[in-house]
Amino acid sequence: MESSVIGTESAELKVRELLKEVQLDYSPAATKMVDDTISAIREAINKIPQGLKVTADAAPAFVRDIGADKVEFTFKKPKSLQIGGSYSIQSIAKPDVNVDLFLRLPKECFHEKDYLNHRYHAKRCLYLCIIKKYLKSSSLIKKTEWSTFQNEARKPVLIVYPAQELVDLPGFFVRIIPTALSLFSVLKLNLMRKNVHSLKQEGSVPLGTPMYNSSILEDMFLEENADFVSKTFLGWRELGEALILLKVWARHRRSIYTHDCVNGFLISVILSYLATESGGSRINRSMKAMQIFRVTLDFIANSKLWDKGFYLKPQGQCNMSKEERKQYLQSFPVVLCDSSSQFNLAYRVTSSGSLELRDEAALTLKCIDKCRDGGFEEVFMTKVDFPAKYDYCIRMEDEDKAVTLLCTLLDSYDNLVTTLSCSKEDSPDLDSVCGALIADELQKKTSLSSLVESKMEGLISRWRMNLEGNSKVYDSGFCLDDECWRTYEKKVHFLLEQGLGDRAKFIRATWQSTPSEWNMEEGLLKFGGEPLLVGILASSFEKSFRVVDVGPNAENKEEVLKFRKFWGEKAELRRFKDGTIAESTVWECEQWERHLIIGRITEYLLSRHLSLSKENVVHTSDQLDFCLLLGVVDPISFSGSLLAAFEILSKRLRCLTDIPLRVSSVQPLDSAFRFTSVFPPEPHPLAYEKDVGRRSQKLTSTCIQPLELEGSGNWPMDDVAIEKTKSAFLLKIGESLQNSWGMTCTATEDEVDVLTSGYAFRLRILHERGLSLLKKQVNDQMKHISSIDKELFIRSQHSSMINGLQGRYPTYGPVVRLAKRWIASHLFSAFLAEEAIELLVASLFLKPLPFYAPCSRITGFLRFLRLLSDYDWTFSPLVVDINSDLTLKDEKEINENFMSSRKSYENSVQNVNPAMFLATTYDKTSEAWTRFSPNTSELRRMVAYARSSADFLTNLILQHQIDSHRWECLFRTPLNNYDAVILLHMDRLACPQRLLFPSEVYQGRHVARGNASKDFHPLIMPGDTRESFEKMKNKLMVNFDPMRCFVEDLKREFPDMFKVWYDSLGGDAIGLTWEKPISKKREREEDSEERQEPVNVLKAVGEAGKGFVRSVYILKEPRLKN
Q1: Domain interval for residue 318
Q2: Mind listing the pLDDT tens digit for each residue in 52-88?
Q3: Residues 915 and 1044 in one domain
Q4: What's the predicted TM-score (pTM) here?
Q5: CA–CA dist 673, 1059 (Å, integer)
Q6: Signal peptide: which range, if any (predicted)?
Q7: SS3 per residue for 75-93
Q8: pLDDT confidence tier of residue 402, bands split at 50, 70 and 90
Q9: Is pLDDT at 1064 greater than 90 in this prediction?
Q10: Which residues pair with 763 in a beta bridge?
Q11: Among positive and negative, which fits the CA dihedral 792, 797, 800, 806?
Q12: Which of 336, 357, 384 is the C-terminal boundary of a domain?
C-alpha cells in the first residue's frame, strides 16, 4: 500500500514536470510575436487589389492534376482572419509550435456549382497562390512554404515563417487554412450525391462521392467545430492539460498520429464530446489532468460507440433519421458527427486506424495499471514507432509513378487488354488511353496474360516519357472520390489482410504522400515520392509461421474458384491426415527459415496483384541473418542432434552402477541447450565413439554439463574435502563411461570431458552441502568467498528459467543471438556476460509494454538496443522475474540492495557498483553477472554504441537503404575509437569462418608485425586424414581458444596498463585503451630507463602474441594529468 502511494506521488510529480517541459509559455513577448505575424499577414492580404482576375495560370499543374475546369474568378478579400487551433485554447504541445489562422473564403469568388469536379479545391488553391505572392513582399515574413491539410494533396495550406525569431517560440510558424462557411448548399454535398463526374457508374447502383463531399464539408464547418471546442475548453485548465498529455502520448505513436487516424483537433473533439452532455459528461471539472487522460483512453479503448457512431449533438436533440445514420455507417468505418449532424469529423479514419487507436489506448491503460510510477516512462517517454512496434515492416518503393497510378486506380484491366490488343505501338491517342484507364476506378480487376503485360510495359514507359507537360495524362488522374494514394493504402491493406488472415494481429499501411518540400508549380507529380510503409504485427508464433494454409473444401466449387483466383499458382489441392481434401497454400522452408514466411507471402501477393517487382518491395525480415549463418546454413539447425546426444549421455550417466552414489539428475548449462548460443556446436567427426568418416572441419565448442548427485550422509563436512571427494567421483565416472560404452574421457580435479555422439561434454558435480557451507561463511560480512557449487547452482537456476522462457517465446532465442553477436562485434565481450544479455532480452518479453512481446528477431533486436541505450541504469534496477516468483517482500529487498549499491554515487559517479543492476529470483543483489563489469565507463560506452546502432537500424527500416552493406554496418565497429589496435591472423582464430569482416587499420602508427604460427591450425589438415582415428582424436583440443588465452595473458602481463576490448565470437581485432592518465609529477620522479614508453609496451604485446598477432598500431598516446 505504501509503495503504491509513493508510486502515485512519483507519477504525479513526473507529469507536472512533463507539462512544464511541453507547455508553451504564453508570455507577453510570445503573444506579441504571434500578433505581429498575424498583422503582417493581414497587411499583405490588404495590399492585394480588389477585382484582380485569377486564372489557372497561377497554378496550372495543380489545376490539371486534380482535373478541375472553370476555375477563373475575380479576387475578393477574405471575409475574416481568425486564430483557431491549439493556440486559441492554450493547449500547444511543444515542439510543434504553430498557430492556425482560419481564412474565410469570400462567397463572391465561387459559383453555386463549384462543389462539382474539384472546382472548389482548384479555386481554394489559386486563392492561396495569390496570397503567397503578396506575402513574399512583406519584410516581416521570412519565407512561405506549401504543405497540405491532413496529408490531403487537393487541400494545400500555406506555412508562414516570421522574420523575427524568439527563444520562447522555437520553430514557430503560422498555418493559413482556408474555410468555406456557408459557401455551398449542404444538401448538394449529401453522402450519396456524385459530385465528380469523371467517375464511371457501374449498372444501376447509384455512385456517391462521400470522401470528396466530406472534404468540402470539412472546410464549411471548420470554424463552427473549432468554436464548439473552444467554448468547451474555455477556462478549464485541467482539460487543456489533458489534451496536451494526449498529444504527447499520440505523437510517440506514429501509427495512430497520422492522416487516417487521430490528430490534435480530433483528440480535442473527443475530449469536448466527453465533457459535454452529448458524451454523458464523463469528464467533469473536479477531475485532474491524469484522471481526464485515463477516462479518455478508457472511452477510446472500450466504448461500443465506435461501431455505432457518436454525435456531438445530445441524443434528444439530434435530428438525424435512422436512414441517415445507416448511410454514414455504410460510408465510413468511424462516424463522429459534428453538432450540425451534417459532417463526419472522422471521415478520414480508416478501419485499420480505428483498431490501432483502440488497441494503443488499451495497452496504455495496462501500462498505467501494471508499470512502475503509473507507467510514466512507457506512456509518455517511450517511442512507439513503426520499426519497434511491428514485427514486420515493408517499404514499397515504386519509383515508377506511372506504374503506381495504374496499379492504384485501375480495378479492371479489361479496357487495357482491349486497347493493347487492338492498338498499334505508335497510337496517337496513347495519353488519352492512359487518362481514361486511370479514371476507370470501379470495375473488377482481372489478371493480365504475359503478352498483355509486356505490351503494358511499353505503354507505361512511353507514358512516363510524356508525364510532364501533357494535360491529357492527368484528366481525373490523381483525385477522384478519394486520392490515389489513399486508395492504394486501402488496396494494399485489403490484399494483405485477405492473404495473411489470422497470421497477423494488425496490418497498417500508411503513405505519407505529401513531400517534405513542395513547389506548387510542379503540381502533384512529387506526391507519393516517399515509400508506402506497411507494418505487420504477428498474432502468435504458431499461427504466423505455419507452413500450410488450409483453404476451402474441394466440394465448395464457388469458394475454390475464388481461392484459386486469389492465390494463382500457389494454390494446390491436398489430402490432409484427417482425410479432408481441400485447397491449400504451402510455404516450404527449413525450420530455421520460418521467420521468412510472412515476407514471402506478402512479396508474392504484391507481385501477383499489384505487379510490384521484388526490387520495389523491401522486407525487414532476413537482413540481419547474415551474422548468424555459417555459409548458407544457420547452425541452430544442429540443435536436434545436440539434444539427442545429451539424452543419450544423461541416460548412460543415470545407469552407472559402479559408483558409490547414483547420479540423480543431469542438467545442461551451456547456452546451446536453451537455443541462445550464437553458434551452437556442430557434430565433429572425431568426437564419436567410432570412425564415422572425416573431413576438414572446425573444432567443436564445449558444452558444459553439471551433474547433481543424490544426497548422502557420508559426505564430509569440510568444503575442501567436498571438492576432493567430487574429484574422486569425476575420475570414477570417466572410467565407468569409458569401460561401459567406449567413450573417450579426459578427467581433471574439477571436471571430466566426454566425447560422444559428435560432441564434447564437460561434466561437473553440484552438491547441496557445498551451498550450505557457503551460506554459513557468507554471513561473515568481512569476506566474500567464491564457490564452484554456488556458480553451478546459479547457472543451473538461470539455465532452467531461460529454457522455460524460450519455450514460451520461440522468437526469444534469435533475438538473444543477435544481441550477443552485436555485443561481441563491438568488442564488449569482456564486459557483459552472455547470461546478462539473456536477462536483458528476457525483460523485453516479460515486460513488453507499451508493446506486445516481439515476434520477429529484428524488432526484438531494435528494442534490445533501445533498452540498453535508454534505460536509467544509474537510478533504476532492472528486475527480471521470469516465472513471476517475486513477492512484495522480495521486491522491497531488491530495492534496498539497489539503494545500498548507490550510496557511493554522491561521492563519485565512477564508483557506482554494479553499474548495471540486474536482479532475479536467484540473484537479488546483482552479483552473479554484473558485479564487476560493466563498470560506469564501460557501460557509458556501451550505451553510446547502442544508441547509435538503434538510430541507424531505425533509419534502415524506414528509409531507402536497401544495400546489404548498409545493414552490415550495424556490426562493424570503428577501430579508431581505441588508443591502440591489435590485428590477429584470421586463419589462426579458433573458428575463422565466424569472422564477419576482416579488420584493417588506416590510421595511427604501425609499431609491430608478426607472422602466423605453424604450430596451430584450427582445421583438420588434409595430410592428417591419413592417420588412424585414435591418433587423430588425440589431436583434438577441447575448449581451446587462442583469443581467450591471449587476452588472459595480456591481463596478467600488463596489469593496470590498459583495458582490453575484444570479440569472443570470432573477431580478428583487439582494442586497447590506456587505463589511467600518467601524472606529470610521477613522470618526472620515475627514471626514464625504468619507465615504459607506450610504443615499447605495444611491442611487448606483439611479442606476447607471437604467431597469433598480425600487426599492432598505436592511435593515441596516454593522456598526461596535471
Answers
A1: 215-384
A2: 999 999 999 999 888 888 899 999 999 999 999 999 9
A3: no
A4: 0.88
A5: 32
A6: none
A7: CCCCCEEEEEHHHHCCCCE
A8: very low
A9: yes
A10: 705, 752
A11: negative
A12: 384
